[in-house]
# Entry
Amino acid sequence: MKKIHCIGYIVLQWSWGILQNVIGGVLYLSCLKKKHTSFRGAIVTEWHNPYSLGCGMFIFLSNYNGSIFDSNMFSKPHQYDILVHEYGHTLQSIILGPLFLTIIALPSIVWSSLFDNFKKKRNLSYYWLYCERWANILGDKVCGNKRIED
# Structure
């Protein structure tokens, strides 16, 4: 049954979510020399950027806090929370299809890059924004994750 779910996930990503998968695929190809693994049908890549990203069925995890592959990523709760959050974005890709880029990706990029002072002044979590909170909810529910922080 697990294999059927993964096949369904991939088919939906490459049909309904084709736009973001092409973008994620190009990013993936630019990171071929990086370390990779899979997670629930998604392709997880470690990259040297200060942020993590979920685009289509591709997840790119920051290695700024040490390599996620040096030890079992599932044994580090914070890293696992980030993985599950980014997996939530891949689920949003399936739900929204071509609307993902405007409803999720664009607000997420703007929120993460331009509103640091706004978040600090109002003591807002990064996950306060609807698209980030929804990614946590989806990822946690599907993965059975008990989030340690928000």
In short: The chain is about 55% helix and 10% strand. The chain has a mean pLDDT of 90.
